[in-house]
Amino acid sequence: MITRPLTRGWKNTLPLLALLGVVAACGSTSTAPSATATGVAATAKPASANVLGAAYDTTTTSSVTLTGAGANSIEPFFETVFYQYGQKDTNTTINYSPAGSSVGVTDIQQGTVNFGDSEIPMTTSQLAAATGGTVLQIPVDLGGVAISYNAPGVPANLKLDGPTLAGIFDGSITNWDDPAIAALNSGATLPNLAIKAVHRADASGPGYDLDQYLIDTAPAWVTKIGTSTPSRTWPQATVGIGEQLNTGVATYISQTSGSIGFVEYGYALQNGFVNADILNAAGAYVAPNEASIAAAGAEATSLSPTDFNVVNEVGAGTYPIANFSWTLVYQKQSSTATGIALGKLFDWVVTAGQADAAALGYAPLPANVAALAHSTILELEGSNGTPLFAS
Amino acid sequence: MSPDTTGVLPREGVEVGGVRAALLRTRAGRGEHVYTVVRWGGAGLFAVVVVALLISIAGSSGQALTHAGVGFLWSGTWNPAAGEYGAGILVVGTLLTTAVAMVIVVPIGLGTAAFLSELAPRWLAGPLSTLVGLLAAVPSIVVGLWGLIVLTPIFANQVEPFLASVPALGWLFRGEAYGPSILLASVVLAVMTLPTMVALSRTALAAVPVADREAALALGATRWQAVRRAVIPAARSGIQAAVTLAVGRAMGESIAVAMVIGNRPAIPSSLTAPGATLGSAIVNQFAEATPGIGTSSVIALGAVLLLLTVAVNAGGQALLRSGGGHRGGTAGALR
To answer: Is the CB of A9 less than 8 angstroms away from the CB of B299?
Structure first.
């Protein structure tokens, strides 16, 4: 646990560590027989071996290890699809460290991993800080952020809107029988129980999405935090308590009576949490589930890394706190074998791999988004700038 | 080894006694040269690494310090989301958790050490020492997880509500019982520093001559009085060294604290309120991707933590010197 913080926190301080990073990167790209593999792939490029789209294209001939780091929210999905892919393509080993979206961005910028993952696409300035050139951003899953609670006596599917949620998270609503909550849930009996709000202590994708929703729907929230730009770092850190990662928040909710917090829906599903129905832009209270999250994703007709926001979409059945997760890879791959393995893996993840999404608390990618992912993967290049895959 | 070129000096293995040998030793061959190079090189490299670390920490925190001024040290706001950076509240949290942890660990640790070295029968002292040693080998993240998973619900549902209801002391523990709190973090820190406290104080107690105990007993003291009046005072400097080390460990701990303190960067209204320390804030913010003021401020927190630790260590050393303990093997070894 000591080494990870060091490579992050001191990343700008110790050129030595950067050097180590380069060494590590060299180490991973030159694994085993990559010299011969590169030669083979270079001569065989026009052949059909590198065409994507086949359900399981497992013709990788040399063994490749792919290392990734990033979003904690996508971990349940990645864990399953990477395992299944590894069963079919035994030459590819995949390691993913779910240390958080911010880590995914930092690691790909430094080039210490083969792929990163972030719940929010990289910004222009983050892209400019990438040391290895152009970063391709591939949408790989569609998820939602559940407002989960553990409050004996409070009915399931409690209705909450933006201003009430904002009140819970800015400390102006402190009890479960608060009139603001009662007004939205006429007929429900609410217990006299203190609210224990829990948020993310680290910078996070779910925090960013909920912040975006509150900014869109609760003017008082904007006044309180003093900005209308959403933040990965939770803006009301002095209210309630902060826990690290989805796992920390989920652990706290599951064992503390009166608690309420936000987690990636996949984690809420795994933990069997009771979730709130959230008011969407069409005026309906919607529970997070595969259908409502898919409905939010379907509104993303012009999705791109710069137009990624699917929070508070208009459709009647949409869950209002949804987002795509983005895998980050360098366009120019110094090792052809690694580049081809990356392309094959993620092309499978965005197509056949989506079959596992629903059971894990995610929604399959809409067709237009899967097409965007596929065309982005086709932009992968070898070190000499030639495309790795024939379209 | 190569033979000597001077011809005057004896070859290696030839016995030479006394002062002459000591004089000759400095020129006694290539082995000595290698040893000298290793010795100076090792010490030099260590110094260079430490100085380089200090310089880079100072350099990287420069942006935060020029942004916030010296006020960074006591500015009360730590809110990275709004671009407000100040270490003041985190310093308070660090000192508070450390102080409470010491209030818990010093009596327990000293009591355990006295029991092990003075009172426990041998068949019990052995296994008990092994247990304490095992505790020292538990990684801090495991202790943190234990705090989060096992202690948090107990604190939220039983310990904190009970403490708040204690008549005269309730005000110390008022407020909502979240579970994660200054108190819980202090308990976790106490568990983590207990092995240090026990092992070092026990060594110090064991170094007190048997004659001291016998003298006290001969004067009619009970065993407890002998330990309290004769042994512990004689081992005072060693015990102070143990406390100093425990304090240093408690102040610098980050991961385990971040899991159980609630991460609320505000002045705690009571001991059961959530808080934040320098270490926990670093853990939570280290991955902040945006280079610049955010990163610089996190590194500046590290610099403040370093200064605090140095100050506490210096204070401990000063105490040791003024305390004037002549015995206490551990303290002697540490100095």
So the answer is: yes
